[in-house]
Automatic annotation (TrEMBL):
Pfam families: p450. Keywords: Heme, Iron, Metal-binding, Monooxygenase, Oxidoreductase. Belongs to the cytochrome P450 family. It comes from Liquidambar formosana. Heme binds at C430. The keyword Metal-binding applies. InterPro entries: Cyt_P450, Cyt_P450_CS, Cyt_P450_E_grp-I, Cyt_P450_sf. It comes from the Eukaryota. This is Cytochrome P450.
Length: 460
């Protein structure tokens, strides 16, 4: 079954445009490794909605604000399911986490836990000193390297890992021997991201999945085990500490996110209990979905600032005015750092961390752009293409933060302006941003922009 123009009167209209592939394997041999780039080239030929067959899988690729709006707003519930690949299923333990869980009560419960607890105002406030400490440490590393090359990616990654670790379990990412694991973690997370995005024959020909021809399943199991070892170590350590301290030790006061999760695990009778597998999967979502995204965005921001001396001068001027020559940036400064926040938005436009979002899947047949999309189709929302489309953006390839200050509509991260969706949109929008909605839209800037702002001295 293909995607067909819905009936108008009694006549069916033309079948949606599609790149022709080969019998049986479809377009699979031609897609290349960077799917978003291949799909952007195809959109130039076939338009903002087209279908393509990859093995036995029917995919529909969308890249215009109007069509994307139909999926993420008008038919949000129909498209709220994910379509996890073999690698995603292995990593999420069959969708036990938030990112790959099927739409339903379980997903809703995990989202509530993540957004209302881990990312709550109280938790962010309580862990501010720990984040500050990690960022100061990063500044010292950078200052110690004046005149020498510096790996910005490495510094931001370990800063974000340790800052996130402090919010989640009150400390850095250390393993059984107490050593700093952030270096190893970076390599493992990078490998995981590649495995999650890699076209895998097993996904396109499920009958061949057990052969694991490219070894994606085996490799994903290996990196997942590595990550799980750290989580289980942390969980065991905490449970032991609680047992040793016993009653009246402060147990149950919800010191950090892990404490809160372990308390939930004990509340089996309340209906909101959580299993150990779900705890592990949620931690994995945060450590994988929240760290690489934030660190790589910070890296793109730094790269663009360095490539554009005019932007560097302007942000330096703003930091001097708002923060002062010899002060460090604090989180409370961020809402006033308007230009810096525009830089961040500009980097997320050109380099969205999830260029095809996370694929969705309709739970029933549905019409988009006049075409009928069958149940089970993989929907790829190509925000990369849309963010670089000359019909949507003036001089789209230019890094010009000012466009975010003068645009006619307010371009924020909330997913309501369909030209700009770095955090996705609708029910499956990134929960790191869902928090911002309840706090008036600025908190996400604070959370994401925080790490970048601290490089003020080096920018100077
Ligand atoms: C620069 C920072 C970040 C960016 C650009 C980003 C981007 C995204 C995007 C594009 C999606 C897919 C949304 C969709 O399909 O419509 C997503 C989903 C998700 N993100 Fe983020 N994210 C960031 C930070 C975070 C953080 C800090 C966390 C957690 C603490 C997080 C956790 C998640 C989870 C759990 C999902 C899956 C949500 C669901 O399926 O219901 N992300 N993110």
């Amino acid at each position: 079954m293909g995607i067909e123009k819905a009936e108008e009167g009694n006549k069916k209209r033309s079948v949606a445009a599609r790149p022709r592939g080969l019998p049986l394997i479809g377009y699979l041999p031609f897609i290349g490794a960077d799917l978003h780039i291949s799909f952007t080239k195809l959109a130039k030929v076939y338009g903002p909605i087209y279908k393509l067959r990859l093995g036995t899988k029917l995919c529909v690729v969308l890249s215009s604000p109007d069509l994307i709006k139909e999926v993420v707003r008008d038919h949000d519930v129909t498209f709220a399911n994910r379509d996890p690949t073999v690698a995603a299923s292995v990593f999420s333990n069959g969708g036990t986490d938030n990112a790959f869980a099927p739409y339903g009560s379980n997903w809703r419960m995990l989202l509530k836990i993540l957004a209302r607890q881990m990312l709550s105002h109280a938790n962010l406030d309580a862990s501010y000193a720990l984040r500050r400490h990690e960022v100061r440490k990063a500044i010292r590393v950078v200052c110690g390297k004046i005149g020498k090359p510096i790996d910005v990616g490495k510094v931001t990654f370990s800063t974000v890992v340790n800052a996130t670790g402090s919010m989640v379990w009150g400390g850095m990412l250390d393993g059984e021997k107490g050593s700093d694991q952030s270096g190893g973690f970076r390599a493992v997370v990078s490998e995981l991201m590649v495995l999650l995005a890699k076209p895998n024959v097993s996904d396109f020909f499920p009958v061949l999945a057990r052969l694991d021809i490219q070894g994606v399943e085996r490799k994903t199991k290996k990196v997942t085990r590595w990550i799980e070892r750290i989580f289980y170590f942390k969980v065991d350590q905490r449970m032991k500490m609680d047992m040793d301290e016993g009653e009246g030790s402060g147990k149950g006061e919800g010191k950090d996110f892990l404490q809160f999760l372990l308390q939930l695990k004990e509340q089996e009778a309340t209906g909101t209990s959580i299993t150990l597998a779900q705890i592990k999967a949620l931690l994995a979502d945060i450590m994988s979905g929240g760290i690489d995204t934030t660190a790589s965005t910070a890296e793109w921001v730094m790269a663009e600032i360095i490539r554009h001396p005019r932007v560097m001068m302007k942000v330096h001027e703003e930091l001097t005015n708002v923060v002062g020559e010899n002060n460090n940036v604090e989180e409370f400064h961020i809402p006033k750092l308007v230009y810096l926040r525009a830089i961040l938005k500009g980097a997320l436009r050109l380099y969205p961390v999830a260029p095809l979002l996370i694929p969705r899947c309709p739970n029933k047949s549905c019409t988009v752009g006049g075409y009928t999309i069958p149940e089970g189709t993989r929907i790829l929302v190509n925000v990369w293409a849309m963010h670089r489309d000359p019909n949507v953006w003036d001089s789209p390839l230019e890094f010009r933060p000012e466009r975010f200050l003068t645009h006619t509509t307010k371009l924020d991260y909330m997913g309501n302006v369909y030209e700009y969706l770095p955090f996705g949109s609708g029910r499956r929008i990134c929960p790191g941003i869902a928090l911002a909605q309840s706090l008036g839209g600025e908190a996400a800037d604070v959370y994401v922009g925080y790490f970048i702002a601290f490089f003020r001295m080096e920018i100077a």
